[in-house]
Specification:
5% helix, four-stranded antiparallel beta sheet, single chain, 4 helices, 43 strands, mainly beta, disordered N terminus
Amino acid sequence: MKRTTSTSLIFIVLLLLLLIPSILPAQVTFEQPDPDNNLGITAIGGLMGCAWGDYDNDGDLDLFVPCGTDPSVLYRNDVNESSQFTKVSKDAETDEGILYDPEGNTQGIIWGDFDNDGDLDLFMTNSGVALFRNDDSVFTDISEAAGLTTIEAEQVLWQVTAGDYDKDGDLDIAFAGSDQGAGGAALPTHILNNDNCVFTDVKDNVIGFDLNLESWCPYWLDVDNDDDLDLWLSTIRTSGEPCALLLNDQGELNFTSSDQTGITANSAITSGWGDFDNDCDLDLIVIPYSGDTDGNCKLFRNDGSTFTNIAPGTVLDLDFSDARGVCWGDYDNDGHLDLWIGRRSGGQSIFHNNGDGTFTDEGAQIGLDAMTGRDPRSVVFVDYDNDGFLDAFGKGQGGLPWLFHNEGNTNHWIVIKPKGDGVTDNTAGIGARVKLVAGSLTQFRYIEGSGSGCASGHLWAHFGLGTATSVDSVIVIWPSGTREFSTGVAVDQYHLFVEGKGITAIDNTPANSILKGFALYQNYPNPFNPVTTISFDLPVRSQVRLSLVNMLGQELKVLTNATCEAGHYQIQLDGSDLAAGLYFYKLETPNFSEVRKLVLLK
């Protein structure tokens, strides 16, 4: 038997040691990039609410922050250009800006393209309801023309939800209840049908009876996967009215009892939907209201025709009645939805999904315990800097909001941005369901109107992929029920999926973006034949050497050996002259070195 030289053995051992971080991704941590100024997000006031949406169509998420009776603020995301968010709402003294805040009490807000012109408009509850049309980043109050000014005028209302329940291609609105905590009476549930941006209240025809309750977290969503949007209305202070699930039957909403669904929730200060068990239907987290005797947190697993509360006996079986915000998101990109419960007192509860039906509270370990005492009433996972890792944003009652950056790990990811055709389906893709298959991993996301109050929706579908380096297929189920799919989709990228036209990779990171550190990415495609792309990041000007070696440590190619400016680089490797097999590529700079493996097929 031929013996391997000691030098080669040492090299192989070193390679394996270098590859361990790729095999076992490190736990992510969150850090405040700007503790005193939140990168320019300084709005205070109001109880809750935030809405992230790309109003200027530049590829990153901007932020609207409602401030109750104080002026609300719109921030343009300039993080990848200037490391700041820029206030662009109108100044009361100079009248400069693109959106003004009407007098009233703004609480619920939601982004959606209500006129299907390709720009996100802003709908809000503001002592009644209001709609601001976006025309190329200039906003106009069209509430009167839209038929909205007489609907619950002067009432302090809570959150709203948007969805195309009647499948006519236009986004409709639902909301329920005024502030009963301030002595207000329960108000009827409203269903506002959108016909070319003119709204008509059709609650009597669609529901058929008065459903009077105070709801903080309404949702349009397809609970039973029958291609019709159902309506979830949680209730908090309405005596005798439990949380309501109304199933959509060809445009009519039918009330279902807890005996039918298994959702035994008398109240919910906050609630949120997400597919935590990757079985392609939406599960439900419910945090009971503190004034109710309904017990501890409830996690209802969707079993198809009924729901089962699986929280008892787990780490979720606690009294979280001091919580207000809740959000699902895969913060460590391992392929399983994690859960953030925004607690008003004590540390934040960030429940890591272990992938086996259990959760572990890692709030303190990952750095979000710094939010202690900040009264977070709205919490959201959001990738504000387009690096593929979900960051954390929260807003409390008074005081500065807070923004935490996710420092990431070696796991892979993909983001799908669905865009409807504007005729059959709304251009924002709200109500679409996105299914992804990567090897043995299958995941499912629902596109929500981004905004509202305690829970904030996601307009883009973010998927963590763990160690998977390729995606087998992406399937989009549009609100109309039309299904489209694409195969062989690249990882570690943002993709635009346009109805009727397919999927396209997009570069959401400007050339002059602020890079957080050195990074060597997994090549794509991998395995490959014969050409693949290797990407890496340089945060500073560096001498760079990128080489290809075989299993014996022998250098076969030098792909680059030069001084490079800070930036993101992509280099192609042509393996036409190589034999099929396993190889390694190595990036070396004076301050950084990393090795990754690739496979050539022939």
